[in-house]
Specification:
By secondary structure, this protein is α/β, with parallel strands linked by helices. The chain is built from six helices and seven strands; from the N terminus they run βαβαβαβαβαββα.
């Protein structure tokens, strides 16, 4: 049987990007990896429901009320438990320290809902990104998948896809279109690319 890379997905919310990966795997397109666990930084989020529906193991490591160090050791324990080799941040709304990212160098990927280096870094997450893009008046935005290092949204870019801004866009409308046209396409494709590289023993 072909060796597959163990993938863990970290989430904090609705999990539509997680769903895109689950569907991609369901269609047989995730040829080099297998989702072994979904870890949430919040209890009760819909992403956990999506994971259970797909019969994927789940864990919750609450961010709230914990020191960064304790939160990260909780996540690390879960990752070691499932022998994760590649980690996907799919709507994961927590910052990770250098201590954490160094342990999985070139093995953590994140999806960001803008064309990095625009509208990114600390404070730019979720709807806030689209609000900022609209108030700036950009005519083109999009999504980026990148490697994760200690700088928020600062790691090397893997894939990007552009999306046109429309005259009557609201942050919510734009968010939905960026997800549909960009995020849900480039995140699963980037994951396959990274898993394939890991199998081949390539670093980047
Ligand atoms: C997505 O748009 C994702 O790109 C964004 O949050 C949303 C999560 O949706 N992530 C960030 O802003 C991280 N900086 P989802 O839970 O439905 O995948």
């Amino acid at each position: 049987m072909k060796k597959l890379v163990n993938v863990a997905v970290l989430v904090s919310g609705g999990g539509t990007n997680l769903q895109a990966i689950i569907d991609y795997a369901g269609e047989g397109k995730l040829e080099s990896g297998k989702i072994v666990k979904v870890i949430s930084s919040k209890a009760g989020v819909y992403a956990l429901e999506r994971a259970r529906e797909a019969e994927i193991d789940t864990a919750v490591v609450e961010r709230k009320g914990k020191k960064q160090e304790d939160f990260e050791s909780g996540i690390l324990r879960e990752l070691e438990d499932c022998k994760a080799e590649v980690i996907v941040l799919a709507g994961f709304m927590c910052i990770l320290s250098k201590n954490f990212t160094d342990r999985y160098k070139d093995r953590i990927i994140n999806v960001h809902p803008a064309l990095i280096p625009s509208f990114c870094g600390e404070g730019f997450y979720g709807l806030k990104v689209h609000e900022a893009a609209l108030s700036y008046g950009v005519k083109v935005t999009g999504a980026t998948v990148h490697y994760v290092n200690e700088i928020a949204d600062g790691g090397k870019i893997i894939m990007q896809r552009a999306v046109k801004v429309k005259e009557n866009d609201t942050p919510e409308k734009l968010q939905k279109r960026v997800m549909q046209e960009a995020e849900w396409k480039i995140l699963p494709a980037s994951l396959e690319l990274v898993c394939k590289k890991v199998l081949k023993g390539e670093t980047k």
